[in-house]
Amino acid sequence: MNFKITNIAVELRDGVRLARIIEILLALPHHSLLNQLRYPASSRPIRLSNIQAVLDQLSNSTDVRGLIEAKDIVDGAREKTLGLLWILVTRYGLTRLVDSDDLSRETTRLNKKMDLTGQIHNVYHYIAPSDDDLTERLRLWAGTIARLHKLEMPNLTTSFADGKIFAAIVKEYESFFPKHHQTVDDASFTEKLQAIGCSDYFGKSFPFYTLSM
After folding, report:
1. How far apart are CA 43 and CA 50, in angstroms?
2. Averaged over 25-54, what is the pLDDT?
3. What is the maximum alpha-carbon separation in the chain?
4. What pLDDT score was predicted for residue 118?
5. Structural domain of 136
6. CATH number for the domain harbouring residue 29
7. What is the pTM of this model?
8. Are residues 196 and 131 in the same domain?
9. How many domains would you assign to the chain?
10. How much is the pLDDT for 202?
11. How far is the CA of 171 from the CAs of 8, 121, 145, 177, 187, in angstroms?
């Protein structure tokens, strides 16, 4: 089966791709969860049953009860779907995606850059790598970029809703992108995201504007 995802609002609703994601992140035997599902999921009751099986499996490792229901995913509720994906990434995927030492060094570099601009900031102290503090390190990194671009970032969830901090991150690192991925200075945020390979759906999730400095 092709597990490619081009639209998370549609292609996670039947539970099949979501089940494969969980198999990978939880290091489950291949198809151990998929074999519990019915496919093709041609009706709503089948999709609900599939998603519930996925959530039941996830509840064995992560407490998602009361936070997300099967109908939320089947009905394509964007906030709940993204919330579930965020739970999976923060609980199981961060250490595979982010190098803790690199993140610490980059945050220190950004703080030094902030010193040169005369901005006030909270000093970031290097701490030994630990899986437990990786989310906090991401918050410090993203928060430093936000302050560099005169934005506030109280948390890692609602602060990203309007796309401004995403735009600040893209702006901060755009000069490091390969030349063929760079865009003109006044390109929209959506155009910048598309240039580095983000899907049209993701790029269009945020308002149209440019981040000028």
Report:
1. 11
2. 91
3. 59
4. 57
5. 100-203
6. 1.10.418.10
7. 0.59
8. yes
9. 2
10. 60
11. 25, 20, 10, 11, 11
Q: What is the mean pLDDT of residues 136-148?
A: 89
How many angstroms separate the CA atoms of 67 and 88, rounded?
Answer: 13
Rounded-to-integer distance, Cα 206 and Cα 191, Å:
11
In a domain, 83, yes or no: yes
Give me 100's structure tokens.
């803790």
Do 112 and 85 belong to one domain?
no
Look at the alpha carbons of 122, 141, 201, 195 in this order and tell me if their dihedral is positive or negative.
positive
- Distance, CA of 38 to CA of 187 (rounded, Å): 44
Q: Do 22 and 80 share a structural domain?
A: yes
CA 126 centroid distance within chain: 24
What local confidence, expressed as pLDDT, does residue 17 receive? Answer: 93
d(CA 109, CA 125): 12
Whole-number Å distance between alpha carbons of 123 and 111: 7
**Angle at which helices 100-116 and 134-148 cross, to 10°:** 20
The pLDDT assigned to 126 comes to 39
Region 193-212 average pLDDT: 59
Residues 16/23, Cβ–Cβ less than 8 Å: no
Give residue 13's pLDDT.
93
Per-residue pLDDT, 190:
72
**In terms of residues, how long is the chain?**
213
Structure tokens at 72: 């939320």
2 within a domain of the structure (yes/no): no
Clarify whether residues 34 and 117 are in a common domain.
Answer: no
Query: Do 56 and 109 lie in a common domain?
Result: no
